């Protein structure tokens, strides 16, 4: 999945030489900016290997991250945004 994201950035952005570390940094930055919006209490314990909760853990975490980022964007957070440059 991460390789696909990197290829998308390289293919569809103006920067064909974007690196994995830059894409990873961008993702972590987006989540970090939204950390005050994270509702991590919604994330259940992983549970035993192979259990339903263990398999769904990354998906639930992704949903919580996405909702926090969306909420942060709606609130107009622009901390150290490129739009300010």
Could you give the count of β-strands?
Answer: 0
- State the separation between the terminal residues, measured CA to CA: 31 Å
Query: Segments where pLDDT lies below 50 for 5+ residues?
Result: none
* Shape verdict: flat
Beta-strand content bin: under 5%
Characterize this entry briefly.
With 85 residues, this protein is mainly alpha-helical. It is built from three helices and no strands. The protein folds into two domains: 1-33, no CATH class; 35-78, no CATH class.
Protein traits:
single chain, 85 residues, mainly alpha, 2 domains, 3 helices, flat
Description of the molecule:
This protein is mostly helical. It has three helices and no strands. The two termini are 31 Å apart. The mean pLDDT is 90.
How is the secondary structure organized here?
Elements (H helix, E strand, L loop, with lengths): L1 H11 L7 H14 L18 H23 L11
């Amino acid at each position: 999945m991460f390789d696909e994201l990197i290829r998308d950035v390289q293919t569809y952005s103006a920067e064909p030489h974007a690196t994995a570390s830059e894409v990873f940094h961008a993702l972590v930055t987006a989540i970090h900016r939204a950390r005050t919006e994270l509702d991590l209490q919604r994330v259940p314990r992983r549970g035993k290997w192979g259990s339903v909760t263990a398999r769904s853990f990354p998906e639930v975490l992704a949903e919580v991250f996405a909702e926090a980022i969306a909420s942060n964007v709606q609130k107009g957070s622009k901390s150290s945004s490129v739009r300010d440059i």
